[in-house]
Each structure stands twice: as C-alpha cells, then as structure tokens.
Amino acid sequence: GDVGEAWHEGSDDYATVAMRFSLVDKTVDRATGKVVEGGDEPVEATELWTFVRPKNADWMLSAIQQAN
Q1: Per DSSP, which regions of the chain are E strands?
Q2: Residue 28 in contact with residue 68, Cβ under 8 Å?
Q3: pLDDT tens, 2-61?
Q4: At CA 63, angle to CA 2 and CA 40, rounded to 5?
Q5: Which of 19, 24, 57, 59 suits 44 as a labelling partner, its CA being 20 to 30 A distant?
Q6: Cβ distance 49 to 63 under 8 Å?
C-alpha cells in the first residue's frame, strides 16, 4: 500500500493507505458446490484503509472504503 494522506485532529493522528491487491472472488452454493457468481480468475481491487492513533497508543484500523 501507499500512504495517500496523513493528518492530525485533536490529539489523534490519522493516515489513509491505498491497499492494492488481487483476489479470487466467488459465491458457491453450499448444497451443490456450484459457482453461482464470480469465478477462479483473480481480480484486482483497491481499498482505502484509514488508521487512527490516539495519543500514546497503537495504530488501529478506523475505516475501509472501496476505491473506484
């Protein structure tokens, strides 16, 4: 991922990271094992993950957004 922006609000620090990855996304009918949506081909995705760090604390995930 790449840090897209970082800022400070009150006593908290924030950073947003663009996470780029590939994944196999499919829905399978449990009863039949048949793929009803998606497939076995990897697809690429980008999500924006925002982290927050309160004063004197560790970084925590605050939000995830789909990027278009």
Answers
A1: 2-9, 12-23, 26-28, 35-38, 43-53, 60-66
A2: no
A3: 899 999 999 999 999 999 999 999 999 999 999 999 999 999 999 999 999 999 999 999
A4: 70
A5: 59
A6: yes
Whole-number pLDDT of residue 68: 73
Q: What is the pTM of this model?
A: 0.73
| Joined tokens for residue 6 | 């970082």
Cα–Cα distances in angstroms (integers) from residue 54 to residues 3, 35, 64, in the given order:
18, 44, 18
Residue 9: what are its φ and ψ, rounded to 5°? Answer: -130, 120
Q: Which amino acid is at 63?
A: A
User: Are residues 49 and 1 in contact, defined by beta-carbon separation less than 8 angstroms?
Assistant: yes
